[in-house]
Amino acid sequence: MFQCSAPCHNKTYDNREVIKAMVERQRDMKIPSELVPHCPVCGKPLTVNLRCDDTFVQDEGWYAAKERYEKFLKKYVNRRILLLELGVGGNTPVIIKYPFWRIAYNNADATYACINYGEAAAPER
After folding, report:
1. Is 119 or 4 the better-scoring residue by pLDDT?
2. What are phi and psi of 114, to 5 degrees?
3. Separation of alpha carbons 25 and 71, rounded Å
4. CA–CA distance, 116 with 87 (Å, rounded to integer)
5. Which of 25, 62, 85, 88 might form a disulfide with 58, Cβ 3.0–4.6 angstroms?
6. pLDDT of res. 66
7. Residues ≥6 apart with Cβ < 8 Å to 76
């Protein structure tokens, strides 16, 4: 997803077609400047909707996904489960990493597995 780099509003935009065009037309690790998307509200460049600083946009889709994730955590907290963490780094561990650790620690039927190049770790039980 893309979002305004400012961000001037809380909305995200699908980036599938834009990224596809960028990949197809890139040369020497550069893309044509006309492919850089701009915010329809303020005109600033769009950027990737990635939680890396205080400009992250949480739109309706984010809140809906958060609700689904919380329901998942509640449903499986005391069941036999494999908690497979793929590529989660230290940027926002409170969203996936720490809840998975807590479930695995409190549930003897839970198995936690972390796959992450260079950052795969788990606390001892």
Report:
1. 4
2. -115, 125
3. 41
4. 5
5. 62
6. 92
7. 103
